[in-house]
Amino acid sequence: MRITVINPNTSQHMTDLIGQSARGVALPGTVIDAVCPDMGPASIESHYDEALSVPGLLARIESAERAGAEGHVIACFGDPGLDAARELATGPVVGIAEAAMRVATSLGRSFSVVTTLRRTCGRAWDLAERYGVRGFCAGVHACEVPVLDVDGCPELITATCRSVLERDGSDVLVLGCAGMTSLCAKLSAELGVPVVDGVRSATLLVQSLVLMGLRTGKHGEFAAPPPKPYAGPLHGFGRG
Ligand code: 5HY
């Protein structure tokens, strides 16, 4: 099978880190295409960034489907454009926040999320609510390291995770940024609790959906977007 793992920001360095982790959990015969858009924000650290990352993300889904991709991962902890991507794609689409939070509920009574900037914590709480796991989430905390620097600050992030687990008394740690994927093994070894990386969780989940022959339901809310003309710079997104 062919799976696309899309980093919705335009950082090639982060895309490479994400691709490495995803390939680490590719099942035999699975080809992983790790890509990022050629337009949009260098990193996603606000609602504005998130909103403007979506057209580039959707363009990558569209080209991936044409190239035969059977499933897609949205590798950003805000799960940007997840619903729109599910409308557009025929194959299953999984967000890393969704996958990580769901996996975490299988590993303990409660989990804590460590994300980048404090201003993105609200989004993580909204997603925990949306995915029905709010009751398992003991806390969402920021290490106050910008997205593009997280893989370079292992000590600070380890210290933040350790104090968060102490404070929340939680059983499981969820990495709140795709850029932390390269720190997962180190954190697991040092913290002594399950550390859940959304990139690996989502890559395995989407492969299992494809293996079960399961796709997004197309009879209702996630049917293909109705064709209509689009004006201005987005005219190419019109499906008229
Ligand atoms: C991410 N931003 O995973 C999120 C992290 C965050 O560019 N990739 C990004 O702080 O929301």
TrEMBL record:
Pfam families: Asp_Glu_race. Gene3D superfamilies: 3.40.50.12500. Coiled coil: none annotated. Keywords: Hydrolase, Isomerase. GO terms for molecular function: allantoin racemase activity; hydrolase activity. Its EC number is 5.1.99.3. The keyword Transmembrane does not apply. The keyword Nucleus does not apply. Belongs to the HyuE racemase family. This is Allantoin racemase.
